Amino acid sequence: QVQLTESGGGSVQAGGSLRLSCAVSGVSGSYCLAWFRQSPGKEREGVAAIGSAGATGYSDSVKGRFNISRDNAKGTVYLQMNSLKPEDTAMYYCAARYGNWMTCTLWQDFAYWGQGTQVTVSS
User: Fold this and answer.
1) Residue 6 parent element (H or E)
2) Residue range 76-115, pLDDT digits in tens
3) Which of 44, 79, 90, 93 could form an S-S bond across to 39 if both were Cys, CB 3.0 to 4.6 Å?
4) What is the share, in percent, of the chain residues with pLDDT greater than 90?
5) Alpha carbon of 41 to those of 5, 53, 94: distances in Å?
6) pLDDT higher for 66 or 28?
7) What are the distances in angstroms from CA 18 to CA 40, 91, 96?
């Protein structure tokens, strides 16, 4: 059974940094782990993904500011968020899907989700 548990959200001023963590269990084989976000009135947006072999991908809105990584020994995937902007304010979700890397950054068919962690960036 795949389980995802996020932590690390909070409030920060614009220009600041936060690191989100997602404890992952139950995944094996070929898979993707990703961070999505959603703010009120907006569609859910995929922002960063990492494949089981370590490839990474980012949305244009966060490229150069966010970094996704993972610690296999700890079973944790991280999202380091730098140079935060008020428009980064959202609920952030960790998600997982099985499949090859080439389709991960289509941001579709993620079957497993965490409960979310709130990030608020003030100006």
Assistant:
1) strand 3-7
2) 999 999 999 999 999 999 999 999 888 899 999 999 999 9
3) 90
4) 90
5) 24, 35, 20
6) 66
7) 21, 13, 21
DSSP classification of residue 37: E
Tokens describing residue 7: 């932590």
* pLDDT at position 102: 86
CB-based burial of residue 15 (10 Å sphere; 0-12 exposed, 13-18 middle, 19+ buried)? exposed
- Residues 48 and 66 sit within 8 Å (Cβ to Cβ): yes
Number of residues assigned to the chain: 123
Beta carbons within 10 angstroms of residue 117's beta carbon: 20
Which tokens is 46 given?
């995929």
